[in-house]
Design a protein that fits this description.
By secondary structure, the protein is α/β, with parallel strands linked by helices. It has eleven helices and twelve strands. The protein has helices at about 5-25, 45-60, 75-85, 105-110, 135-150, 165-180, 200-210, 225-235, 255-260, 275-285, 310-430; strands at about 35-40, 65-70, 90-95, 115-120, 130-135, 155-160, 185-195, 220, 245-250, 270, 295-300, 300-305. α1 runs antiparallel to α11. It is rod-shaped, with a radius of gyration of 52 Å. Bound molecules: beta-D-fructofuranose.
Length: about 425
Amino acid sequence: MNTHTILRPIFLLATFIVALLTIVGCGDDTRHYVIGVSQCSEDSWRSKLHDELDIATYFNEGVTLRYASADDDPNLQENQINEMIDAGIDLLIVSPQQMGELSSAVDRAFDKGIPVILFDRKTGSNKYTAFMGADNYEIGRMCAEYVAEQLHGQGCVVEIGGLKSSSPAIDRTRGFRETLAKYPGLKIVGFGNGDWKEASGKRIMEDILKTYNGPIDCIFGGNDRMALGAKKALLEGGRGDCPIVVGIDALPAEGLGICQVRDGELTASAIYPTHGDELMTLALNILEKRPYQRENLMVSSLVTAANARVLLLQYEEVVRQGNYLRRMHERIDKTLHTIVLQRTIIGAFILLVTFIAIVSILFVRAYRQKHQLNTELRDKNQLLATQRDELQRQRDTLQEQHDQICEQRDLMESQRDELAVQRDELQKLAHLTPA
Ligand code: FRU
């Protein structure tokens, strides 16, 4: 068997394997993106956003989301962003805890060419690709107009601002204050910056109550949690209920904003939209180099007792659809897994069959060649045997001739001896005969 005969089936097998792997692995030309989502905090509002982003990935198969939450620790968030950059992400979505704090890590991502979407909060640096968030100034303005309307332009307001130096807190307070200033009858009698959590709203109100004994007609919280914390402090401090409690976020779930408005715990709450689907669209527009807007402001609206139930009903429907999508996605995932498994098994089976076929071909070829060689060998042996017999025969003939020659020689020698005897006798006779 020469090298060519061996190499040909191996070459065929290799070509077949490559073709097979291409077939088994084909059908997936989606581009894959890893999107890092760096959250300053962990709470219901951010969980809602994550749910929406997760659902958005069902329609964008190639996207993998990597979440990190810094639990209100800017140093941790900075480290998490740096880790994401080092691990390799295609785009960064970040909700920075405060202005300034995270700029270096976010700037680093931007300088490395990683597109950056600031979501909900800003860094203060201009190094970002796009911003998406609500117009917090407008939210503050809208809340102030509502308070003014409810109090008919007269009353004492306590404001619990959000985390100092975080962009929503700054803008909400500015929008609220600048609008309230139009109503000389409305006074801010107490203010403090919380950290977005209920306990901070309560603590601030407790501090205010230590020095302020006058009426409180309205609590305006930088978010629902802080507004309710302040309300609790008022009740626990024996100061009675506050007629108007306005917050921000209006999350549509039991125990949260819209339900609290429905149940009368909050008078109103401004929706702080999450819109994870739009955020995903923006991210993909950037990644796929499609046109996009750099500043994307989401519209807010006020939830009051008048619309809370309708909004909840609508949201229940959204949740139902979301759950349905989730179930569909799980099914599709399962089916895809089965298909991939089947493809792999079929691929492996075809490989095995091909392998056996090629080995069989090689085996048959080798057997045939061996058989042919055996036949040739047998013919040659027969030829040699015939030649050997012929030689044997010739040698026997020669031997016979040799024996005959020897016999004749012996005969001739005996005749010669006889002649010599006769000659001697004749000579003797000649001597005896007188001349
Ligand atoms: C959630 C939250 C919201 C608030 C927003 C401001 O983390 O605290 O309650 O509206 O962040 O960025």
